[in-house]
Each structure stands twice: as C-alpha cells, then as structure tokens.
Amino acid sequence: LVLAGCLASAGLALAADNLLWVIEVGLARRKRWMTFGGMAIVVLGILAALWGQHSEESERPIVIAAKQFSEQYILAQLIGSRLEAAGYRVEYRDGLGSAVVHSAVAASSVDISVDYTGTIWANFMKRADNPGREAMYETIRAWEAEANGVKVLGRLGFENAYAFAMREDRARALGVTSLEDLVAVGPRLTVGGDPEFFERPEWIAVRDAYGLSFGRTRNFAPTFMYNALASGEADVISAYTSDGRIAADRLVVLADPKGALPSYDALLLLSPRIAGDAGVLAALQPLIGAISVEAMREANFAVDREDAGKLTPKQAAAELARKVGLSPE
Questions:
Q1: Residue 49: pLDDT above 60?
Q2: Do residues 256 and 178 lie in contact, with contact meaning Cβ atoms separated by under 8 Å?
Q3: DSSP notation for 261-316
C-alpha cells in the first residue's frame, strides 16, 4: 500500500509538471490553445478533487468511539441505535484509550464519544481544584467549545465516579451511612482500593477533608476488590459508582456530604463535524438526563456477569433503552 501510494503520488507529480510545461510553452510561443488547454485541465483536476472530497465527506458514516470497558460499549450501542433509527449510517471504534478518544473527537476523525467530567478536568484541562459539580460542568462545556470546537450536548444523568462502599449488613451494624460516620470507626476497619487509589488525589482529598484514618489499607485488583468486601478481607472499598456489582452485591455507597470527591458526570461529546447537524442533535437530545445510575449499573452487570443471564453490549443497550423509555421508534 505504501508503494502504491508512492507511485500514485509520483504519477500525479509528473502529470502536474507536464501540464505546467504545456502552459509555459504555450505562453512562450503565444499558442493560446496550449495555454488555455493546459489551464483548463488544471482547473478541471482541482474541481474533480474537491468534488471527490465533498462526496466522500457527505457519504461518511457517523463514527462512535468507546473506551475499554463495558459501560462504554453499551452506551456506544445505545447512541448508535438512535442514530440508525433516524436514518444515519454508523460505525464503531471500540477499545480506545481515553487520550486517543478525546483527541480523535476534537479532530473529527471520531464523531461521538462519552467522557466524564473528572477525566476531562484532570487529564486534559490539567486542573487539580474542585469547584463543585455545576461549576466544573459549565467550565468544561465552555473549554471544549473554545479549545477544541467540541460540543458538549449534555449530561446523560449518571456518574461513574470513585466512591466508598460497604456491605449493607456491615454498614448497618456499624451505623455508617456517610464518610463522616467512618471517622469514629475507621481505626478498627480495613479499607481496600485499586492498585493506584491510595496515591490518587481523590483519596488524598477525602482523607484530608474528613480526617479519615483506617487500621489497615490494602490494594486489590478491581475484580478482587469486590470479592474482598464479600469475604470480609476489607470493610470498605473504593468502588466505581456505576459498577453493576454495587447492585448485584447489595452494597451501600457512602454519602460524601462535604463534596470531597470530584464529580464524574457522563457527558455526550460531538465532534466539530457534526456539532451543528440538526438531525443528530434531535436524535441524541432525548438521552440527556435520561439514564439513572441504577439503570446503568444494571446494564453494566448484565454484560459483566458470567452466568446464563449475560448479555452482549448491544443487547444490554436495547434493554437499557427500553427501561428508561428511549427505545428507538
């Protein structure tokens, strides 16, 4: 393919060089047919190239990106089903890294993605402060439009954020419903987190805001972290708020009354190429604010479970759409 491209480029260069030679000779010898004939061919070539580019762009499907976890695959399928119902052709780019997705949307090589306020705030805007949920969202919305030409259509209605979770029976026995309640009992408990959690700013912010201290801290792989909670190896874990295992294991997510944890609202991002497409906006606007964290947890668990009830992301997206009243008509 590289060789074919080189040969084609060389051929095009030679053809252009010969046309310029014809025009030059025509001007030197005062032969109008050579001059205007060569110029006409050049103009026709340029017009043909522009027409081809326009035709290719108009026929291009809408490309939807997904990062490397179930929630993203489900949401991509949900978005795609609505666009297909509206008459658009859709393609998927699955399993991409966060930085790749964000750059691709800004460059319009990908048209749609779901990202999270905390991710954009820390990773792309390089912000370490926490101005609060609404201020963070509005700042991100303005920054995406000004810096990247990306339209933040809105929030889907749920967060996939860090949170602290306990077994329901254990929390009830200790009288714990919020992070404030952990202050008194924390020194007697074991807290578990994913391999990097206790180095992350989220943990530092919570620890400092509440003055938390635990008897023991342990690191677990995300999957084993939930198992450790079930077996009693950990009393509290750093969970992900939209993880299906929270509902499946009947865990209690502890309240954060001081707002120490940053928000991770799920956002729907549109590339500059389709940001003004009225049909796309009409098809996707009903998604805004429509998906609760409970509905997203259930959909995620349907894909992540390992028993006979396991669904594909496409099946889970269809079920999610039905449950939240967004089935394409």
A1: no
A2: yes
A3: SPP-EEEEEE-TTTTT-HHHHHHHGGGTT---HHHHHHHHHHHH--STT---HHHH
Q: For residue 196, what pLDDT band results from cuts at 50, 70 and 90?
A: confident
Two structure tokens written together for 103: 């750059």
Nearest to 118 by CA among 127, 107, 108, 110: 127
Which residues lie closer than 8 Å to 325 by C-beta, 6 or more apart? Answer: 290
Average of per-residue pLDDT values in the chain: 89
164 contacts 253 by C-beta, under 8 angstroms? yes
- Is 223 within 8 Å of 199 (Cβ atoms)? no
CA atoms within 13 A on the CB side of 196: 4
Rounded to two decimals, the pTM is 0.74
Show the tokens assigned to 290: 């429509």
DSSP assignment, residue 255?
Answer: B
Q: At 58, is the pLDDT very low, low, confident or very high (cuts 50, 70, 90)?
A: low
Query: What does 4-41 look like in DSSP terms, one character per residue?
Result: HHHHHHHHHHHHHHHHHHHHHHHHHHT-HHHHHHHHHH
Place of tokens 């729907």: 268
Strands (E), 127-255: 151-159, 162-167, 190-193, 216-219, 236-240, 251-253
Q: What is the pLDDT of residue 266?
A: 98
Tell me the C-alpha distance between 218 and 197, whole Å.
10
- CA distances from residue 59 to 55, 62, 220, 267 in whole angstroms, order as listed: 6, 9, 48, 27
Render pLDDT for 14-35 as a digit per residue (tens, 0 to 9).
Answer: 877 777 776 776 677 776 766 6
Tally of CB atoms within 10 A around 174: 17
